[in-house]
Structure formats: C-alpha cells, structure tokens
Design a protein that fits this description.
The chain has about 270 residues and is an alpha/beta fold. The chain is built from 8 helices and 10 strands. It has helices at about 35-45, 90-105, 125-140, 150-160, 180-190, 205-210, 220-225, 230-250, and strands at about 15-20, 20-25, 25-30, 50-55, 80-85, 110-115, 140-145, 165, 195-200, 215-220. The strands form 4 sheets. Strands 3-10-9 form a 3-stranded parallel sheet. Strands 6-7-8 form a 3-stranded parallel sheet. Strands 1-2 form a two-stranded antiparallel ribbon. Helix 4 links the parallel strand 7 and strand 8 (about 165). Helix 2 packs parallel to helix 3 (about 125-140), helix 3 (about 125-140) packs parallel to helix 4 and helix 6 (about 205-210) packs parallel to helix 8. The longest helix is centred in the last third of the chain and has 21 residues, at about 230-250.
C-alpha cells in the first residue's frame, strides 16, 4: 500500500511522520518466520503496512543470485524497506551491517538499529546500542532504535539524533503483550520523535493497547507469522492499530469507582 492509498479509518490528517516522510499506516511489519516469500507478501498486503523490516544478514536481497529475492515480492517502489541489524551483539557488527545495507540498497539511510545483549532474552545491550547510534547518526543514517523501556535512555537516544525510539513491550517473540504500560506512557510524554512499540505483541488487543497509550506505531513480526492463519491475523492487526489510534485521539471516558447511568435522569417524569 503506497502513501497515496491511506489505510481506512486513519484519516489523512493524522499521518505517521518518520525522518520527514509521511505514512498513512501506523503498523510496521517484519519479513521473517513465514513459510515462504509468497506468504510474506500476502500477509504484508493484508496488514496495510508501508514500512517493512528486513534482516540484512539473513535475507536474500539479490546477493544470492540463485535464490528467491525478497525484493521481487516486496518492491522498494511500493514499500519503505527498513534494514535491521538483527543478530548483532556488538557495535562493530551493527555498524557494518548498516553500511552494507546502504551499499546494497543504493545509499539507503533509514535503518533499524538493534544491538542485542544475549541469545536467551534478546534484550538490548544499551551500552553498545548508544555507541552504535552515535556512530550511525554521525554518518548520516536515519536511525530507528530498538531499546529498553527506560524513559531516560529514550531521551538520550533522541538527543543523539535517532529519528524514532522503539522500546520493547515484552521480550522479542514472546507474545506476552504490553507488560510495561507505565514506562511506555512515560516515554511517550518525554520525547518528541515517534515512539514505536517493538517486540512483545501477541494479538490484536495488544496492538490496540499500545496505540491507546499514545504510541505512534507498532512493529511486529512473530505475532503475525506464527498465527494459525497469518493473513487473517495481519488484517486483524491492521484494524487493531487503526482502532487504538482513533481511541487515543478520541480520549477515553474517565474511570470511576461507582456506577453511572448511561441515560440522563434530569427532566424525566419520575424526578
């Protein structure tokens, strides 16, 4: 789906702005864990996503001439590709992967930085993430950064020059849902660049909650790819993100500790 075909229900007056570019969809999706590239294509079309993450170290983008090329299924003229540094555990490998993506994709500068701490939790190594972000921002990359749900760290990454902050809601691939509503809300209120929940979403209600908290977008992969019916789940996620965003913009009713009649009583015959 291109920027000229907005996702129904989002409204053209409410675009997601990343690195100066407007997107009508607030759902970002990954390309891993599907049974083949055809299923990947169908799921992403159903999701309505315009930004698609690609693991440069794990995906064939033409470097292996004899194998299927993801770009044949997800053409760059239709989608904004977001190369990521999945599988990187140190500064050098993360920076090198981004530079490789820039070369492979004709000076492409928008990247997703993730520097992992260990293979068990896949939590961000914040020390290495900060160092890598500083290098990449100095080199002119537009860095969207995977990080912890620490508001102070989010602010520091914004100050370095990252164009989007991507805190986890739960461990990568866990499907545990939004486990940190307070800290996500603090990050939303602390920084001015987009806040995109990255990791932990398991089903549509999780995506809606993230958006209702005020997050600007949600990125997911496993929640769609490992669903019993990935194409159907992709469509569910599409609508969930729209619903959550609209609910956030509308403003929910106050929470009360007592009942409140749905119909007004003033002026009725028994008052």
């Amino acid at each position: 789906m291109s920027a000229t075909h907005p996702t129904p229900g989002t409204g053209t007056d409410d675009p997601l702005i990343i690195a100066g570019k407007a997107y009508s969809s607030r759902l970002l999706v990954g390309t891993g864990k599907y049974k083949d590239f055809e299923e990947t294509r169908e799921a992403i079309e159903a999701s309505g996503a315009q930004i698609v993450t690609v693991a440069i170290r794990r995906t064939n983008l033409g470097q292996d001439v004899g194998s299927p090329n993801l770009l044949d299924y997800l053409p760059p003229e239709r989608y904004t590709l977001l190369p990521n540094t999945a599988g990187c555990y140190d500064v050098d490998s993360a920076v090198r992967t981004c530079r490789l993506a820039r070369e492979m994709l004709d000076d492409h500068r928008l990247v997703k930085l993730e520097v992992l701490g260990d293979q068990k939790t896949l939590y961000p190594n914040i020390t290495e993430t900060l160092k890598a972000a500083e290098i990449l921002c100095r080199e002119g990359f537009e860095v969207m950064v995977y990080t912890t749900d620490d508001p102070l760290m989010a602010k520091r990454l914004e100050e370095i020059g990252c164009v989007a902050i991507m805190p986890l809601a739960a461990p990568i691939g866990s499907g545990l849902g939004i486990q940190n509503r307070y800290t996500l809300r603090e990050i939303v209120e602390t920084i001015s660049v987009p806040v995109i929940v990255d990791a932990g979403v398991g089903t549509a209600s999780d995506a809606s909650i993230a958006m209702e908290l005020g997050c600007d977008a949600v990125l997911m992969n496993t929640a769609i790819a490992e669903a019993r019916q990935p194409i159907v789940m992709a469509e569910a996620m599409r609508h969930a993100v729209v619903a959550g965003r609209l609910a956030y913009r509308a403003g929910r009713m106050p929470r009360r500790t007592h009942a409140s009649a749905s119909s007004p009583l003033d002026g009725t015959f028994f008052t």
